[in-house]
Specification:
Pfam family, one: Hist_deacetyl
Family: Belongs to the histone deacetylase family.
Strand order of the largest sheet: 2-1-3-8-7-4-5-6
Radius of gyration: 17 Å
CATH class: Alpha Beta
Number of domains: 1
Keywords: Hydrolase
Shape: globular
CATH superfamily: Histone deacetylase domain
Order of helices and strands: EHHEHHHHEHEHEEHEHEH
GO molecular function: histone deacetylase activity; hydrolase activity
Structural class: alpha/beta
InterPro entries: HDAC_classIV, HDACs, His_deacetylse_dom, His_deacetylse_dom_sf, Ureohydrolase_dom_sf
Number of strands: 8
CATH architecture: 3-Layer(aba) Sandwich
Number of helices: 11
Helix content: 40-55%
């Protein structure tokens, strides 16, 4: 059974101007349930994490400033949100959901977090609406618990996973692979193990060719026994921030390539949904739902 972490009332801790794109986290499971792609029993609400798990990844001083709401004004501006207890709890639950999904994937080959993909958070900073790095926290959890040995993080959000790259820059057990807009946020990039910068306006054919080429390279180099996949849909041509030109069909084919690769090699896979900022929320929700539909078709 494919398990899916979801989060009720997800947008409510956010400032008014940021709630619209976050509505997708409530609408995605509703749509999947409505159309019969998933059953209610597949959904679970994550709990909170112990602090010792968070500080396996983030510096203790940074976490304590988050927890105690004492980040400086400058640090909060870098994040993009004013801090609140609800916002911090939200991020902790996101990370918890990704850990629980990763554990489920070890048993069932694939699992999802409807949220997550908070890849701009580094060891000692938050950035770009990301406070804690969910997939990095989950990867370190699996390594610490000796549940896997070699991890590949595939980041296909349109923005570079700079926080993830910084966290694992000197950790050979984790290979970071990011395909992202070269002239898009963050404008100061970190160095992933494999970076593929993309020109503005790139469409389906060129994008998918690059993905096939570099995904094969990443798997050959790392030989992973676990994969984290960040499947942001801000690569769509309709996205207000993405600057790429993928069609919805191209985005679905991107997901199929990644999922098929993991299935063929028998590598467990956890998926966090990442960004999506199209003007019509239906485009965002449908593109994300395509990822779940593919998983149901491929993994049953």
């Amino acid at each position: 059974m494919i398990r899916i972490a979801h989060h009720k009332m997800f947008a409510h801790p956010l400032p008014e101007g940021h709630r619209f794109p976050m509505l997708k986290y409530e609408l995605i499971p509703e749509q999947l349930l409505y159309e019969g792609s998933i059953e209610q029993e597949q959904l679970f609400e994550p709990g909170l994490l112990e602090e010792e798990i968070i500080v396996m990844t983030h510096e203790k001083a940074y976490w304590e400033k988050l927890r105690d709401l004492t980040l400086s004004d400058r640090e909060q501006r870098r994040i993009g949100f004013p801090l609140s207890p609800e916002l911090v709890e939200r991020e902790v639950r996101i990370a918890s959901g990704t850990i629980e999904a990763a554990i489920s994937a070890l048993r069932h080959k694939i699992a999802f977090n409807v949220a997550g993909g908070t890849h701009h958070a580094g060891r000692f900073w938050g950035e770009g609406f990301c406070l804690l790095n969910d997939q990095a926290i989950a990867a370190n959890y699996l390594l610490n618990k000796c549940l896997c040995d070699r991890i590949l993080i595939i980041d296909l959000d349109v923005h570079q996973g700079n926080g993830t790259a910084e966290i694992f820059g000197k950790v050979p057990q984790v290979f970071t692979f990011s395909m992202h807009g070269d002239k898009n946020f963050p404008f100061r990039k970190e160095q992933s193990d494999l970076d593929v910068p993309l020109e503005n306006g790139m469409g389906d054919e060129a994008y998918l060719q690059l993905l096939e080429q570099h995904l094969k390279k990443a798997f050959l180099i790392q030989q992973p026994d676990f994969v984290f996949y960040l499947s942001g849909v801000d690569v769509l041509a309709t996205d207000k921030l993405g600057k790429l030109a993928l069609s919805k069909a191209g985005c679905k084919e991107r997901d199929r390539i990644v999922l098929q690769y993991c299935k063929d090699l028998g590598v467990p896979l956890q998926i966090s949904m990442g960004g999506g900022y199209s003007a019509d929320i239906k485009d965002i929700v449908d593109a994300h739902c395509n990822t779940f539909r593919l998983a149901a078709d491929l993994f049953g």
